Amino acid sequence: MLREPAPPEWSEIDHEVFARLVSPDHYLRRALEAIDFGRFRPLIVSKYSSDQGRPAEDPVFMLKLEFLQYHDNLSDRQVIARAETDVSYRFFLGLSLKDELPDPSTLCVFRGRLGVDGHRDIFHGVVSQAREHGLVKDRLRLKDATHVIADVAIPTTLALVAQTRNKLLAAAEPFDAVRVEGERARTEMIRVSTENHNAEERLVARVTHLREILAWTDELEPPRDADTNQAWKALATARNLARKVLADQADPKAGDRMRSIVDPDMRCGMHGDWYDGYLLDVMMDPDSEILTALHELPANGDESADAAELVHQEEAFHGNDIGALSIDSVAFVGPVLKQLQDPEGLALDLYVPPVRQPETKYFAAEEFQEDASQGSLTCPAGQSTARRERNRHDTGWKYRFPGEVCAGCPLRDRCIQRPSATTGRTVIKNEYEPQYRAMRAKAETAEYAAVRREHPKIERKLSELARRHRARRARYRGGGKVLIGALLTGTVVNIKRMVHLLCAPKLAPEGT
To answer: Which of 88, 198, 247, 339 is the most exposed place for a label (fewest CB within 10 A)?
Structure first.
């Protein structure tokens, strides 16, 4: 339950202390000038009950505490401790010298209350205020991503299966305690009986046991209040984790393997080097250097396809129409190029560095003529084939010429790389070749060069996020909580930029 908002109650001593110790050009004074924090109240009050619970801390006050916490890289306990003694913090928060601070756990509750949606609304609310000041333009957006290392220790496969089993048994205990006790006894028997076995045999025994536990927990009757019963929801979560772990063990080559049940959303991916965690994907206005959209992906997520998500996110919130987008060569993928430039869709003027084609003396796929209506392909020597199948990525047709046709061809030396080959030429006609050709042609223009010269701005912004605000290290565990941390970091960085653009430092009056 919320109290009615009230202005700070400062005594004459409070006013004098703040006037003397918080200078007119102090950063936090300028932040209050640049950002109207009170405008965020309507975005937050819906998260509170109007008539239940004890009176809560003012949500704008809590939002300011989050800002200070992420601005200065502090923990919940550290930001409260600093606000106890830092005069500038008290001025910014609207506290008198005698006001008491809430318990640090209140910040954790507030983060959970707002959740991802609430913090995303705050992030875009700051961008909206920047747009009102005329800072953000719709001419161009720059997009890039950086890695975020998860705050977990990666267990061995054997330990992961054991942890999943223990979590499932703990979740099932409220519904069948006797059977859970029996399964725990069996767990100890398996441990003792396989103690001298090799790792593979021990893993097989534990996977089999986990599969059997999952089978009988799936047969448990749900309680009448299943929709609101927290214990039943915890069991459902544990069963889903067990299914995922078992599916990964059934397919050793699975590319989306769970790495930890402590943070089940993070994955293993490569960003320069292999790591476990997430991808922080951001989009920025180069004119103001303000982040306009932000998203978090698992480390193995599709960064190129996420560009459309970022554009949709910004345009849905602000109702604007982005003109152009610059991305690294990771987006030089046919489906992505087509989706982003589709005149009936996003209709973006796209700038992507083309992937360099290796020089070759052999005929390229473009020199083979395809008759899509007949499903045939004609080579430069005039021979045709209708043998075809979809390629591995399902982005085009793979045509095969018979070996006997290519054997006596006068142009064989310019077509077949291995002279001893007995098979004919294989050619892939990619359905997205028009998009590739158009982007390669655009890369030769002066306009493309001018846009790409602006791209390093977002790399510097990512450096600020990582070096000044520790954005490459997850504070929390779980995809939702990691995204909340990223949104708070992006909000802080945007406010810093707005303070720089809108509020020049003020000199103290003479005689003070």
So the answer is: 198
